[in-house]
Amino acid sequence: MELIQLYDSLFNQAIRQISRGEVQIDRKIDDNGDRRRGLTLLIRPSDDIKVLVRAFQDEMLNIEGEQYYQPISDLHVTALSIISCYEGFDIGQVHIPDYEYIISQSLEEIPKTKLTFKGITATREAVMIQGFPMDEGLEMLRDRLRNNFKSANLQQSMDSRYRLTTAHMTSVRFRKELQSPSKFANLLHDYRKVEFGEMRIESLELVYNDWYQNSNIVKTLRCFSV
User: Fold this and answer.
1) pLDDT of 72
2) What is the mean pLDDT of the chain?
3) Residues of the chain with pLDDT > 90: what percent?
4) Domain segments of the chain: what residues?
5) What is the C-alpha separation between 217 and 226, in angstroms, rounded?
6) Which residues fall within 8 angstroms of residue 101, CB to CB, at 6 or more apart?
7) Which residues, at least 6 apart from 167, have a Cβ–Cβ distance to it below 8 Å?
8) Which of 56, 94, 129, 147 is the most buried (most CB within 10 A)?
């Protein structure tokens, strides 16, 4: 219920701004000099879910063709951002096997977890697919990771921006002014409760990543079976 209220609050606040074209442009999306990097544990959606997200993106694309539509290969749910992206972070600064060990320990006896994706929400910066954990497994894992990393002498910045409680997927980011803000907002209303499917979390990926999880930059360090 709290997650529904959070998604609703984000959408209700943002949709009025979006309908007036008052979006926040991300100026770094097309910046080849962007060197922000981090370390993330993420979940990839199933192929069936990707197909439905792509269909939604195609409809948005027909209205607002200049925005940044997250490539299907880059879609993800952040299980936890271990080191939030910042300028100057390099993978050589940390000992990856230490991170792998803590993640492996944290995963022990974590119950199987399902995610369901239903509806969309938005901010002034982006449009997101709403994800809902169907049990306690994901939150249990996040809490274990937080506790285990904080007790270890390893670089981490978990929850430095905000405490992660959602299971959303970013679908589009705004990189240009909206050309048809009212029409775009109406489409978002139409997708407010659309079903995108459900999946069981079978694996987690530890990745070295940029801000946008661009597959041309992301390095998968290890996959963990769940």
Assistant:
1) 96
2) 95
3) 90
4) 2-225
5) 25
6) none
7) 43, 77, 115, 131, 132, 133, 138
8) 129
pLDDT given at position 160: 56
AA identity, residue 11: F
Decide which of 50 and 32 is more confident. Answer: 50
> In this structure, are residues 122 and 76 in contact, taking their beta carbons and an 8 Å threshold?
no
> Tell me: the pLDDT tens digits for 46-105?
999 999 999 999 999 999 999 999 999 999 999 999 999 999 999 999 999 999 999 999
CATH among 3.30.1240.10, 3.40.50.150, 3.90.1140.10, 3.40.50.1460 for 2-225: 3.90.1140.10
